[in-house]
Design brief:
By secondary structure, the chain is an alpha+beta fold. It folds into two domains: about 130 residues, START domain (Alpha-D-Glucose-1,6-Bisphosphate, Chain A, domain 4); about 110 residues. The strands form two sheets. Strands 6, 7, 8, 9, 10, 11 and 12 form a seven-stranded antiparallel sheet that branches. Strands 1-5-4-3-2 form a five-stranded antiparallel sheet, with helices on one face. The longest helix has 25 residues. The protein is globular, with a radius of gyration of 18 Å.
């Protein structure tokens, strides 16, 4: 049975409203609910273009997007940005819509993912704002592990492979091999039972414990260096993730 939902979050971001606007419209790199939208800074949205109709387009203050599905469900994203002292901004984010089957799992997953997405947006603005980014992973799902990555302890296995304990604090060092994708050298920037974020000098690595929501553990990477072969890096990370659960 289909049911309506609404999730609201308010966060302070370490950047001016113009930079926040650019981050959520042009340099999205999958740190928000997938919209397929990347509109160059200063450009107007295409009429009914990728990402669905734009109900409101008022840079850098308000953005509302509504994405319809053939089954009658939809997702609406509402961003309200306010300038704050010190060149920072406050974002009020509302994700609403209608979900179909397995409503509770989907609702819980959207809420938890929203917190992680908004945190990642803040990390980008604080550490990499304006730097060209390559997103590694599929737009809607990242890089998914195999079926064996759907067990209750699958996220624990990933943490073990990275040498990150379940109670690791933000700022804890991470030094772990990722197979042919190289070494992961950075610090924990986000940690909950369902999610793990690692920030390196030139990237943000995101690990998703979607086994908690009826799916499998996955990951993605946002890399701020030139010359990244996204397809090759995705293949290497996929091989590493599959091998972890072999």
């Amino acid at each position: 049975m289909s049911r309506a939902f609404e999730i609201t979050r308010e966060v302070d971001l370490p950047a001016a409203p113009d930079d926040v606007w650019t981050a959520i419209t042009a340099h999205t790199a999958a740190w928000q609910f997938p919209t397929g939208m990347e509109i160059p800074a200063g450009a107007a949205p295409p009429e009914g273009g990728a990402g669905g109709p734009f109900s409101t387009w008022d840079p850098p203050h308000r953005l509302v997007i509504r994405m319809e599905s053939p089954d009658g469900t939809f997702n609406a994203l509402d961003y309200a940005i306010e300038a704050r002292e010190g060149g920072t901004a406050h974002l009020r984010y509302v994700h609403s819509g209608i979900l179909a089957d397995e409503w509770e799992d989907q609702y819980d997953a959207i809420g938890a993912h929203t917190d992680f997405y908004l945190h990642t947006l803040g990390q980008y603005l604080a550490h990499f704002d304006g730097r060209p980014v390559t997103y590694v992973g599929q737009p809607s799902s990242g890089i998914e592990g195999p079926e064996a990555a759907g067990t209750p302890d699958a996220m624990d296995a990933l943490r073990g492979a990275l040498g990150v304990s379940s109670d690791a604090a933000v700022g804890a060092a991470v030094h772990a091999p990722l197979g042919d994708a190289g070494m992961l050298d950075g610090v924990v920037d986000y940690s909950t039972p369902e999610f793990l974020g690692v920030r390196t000098a030139d990237g943000l690595y995101r690990f998703f414990g979607r086994n908690h929501f009826g799916s499998v553990v996955g990951m993605s990477a946002h890399l701020f260096v030139d010359g990244v072969d996204a397809a090759a890096r995705e293949a290497a990370l996929k091989t590493w993730l599959d091998g972890l659960y072999a």
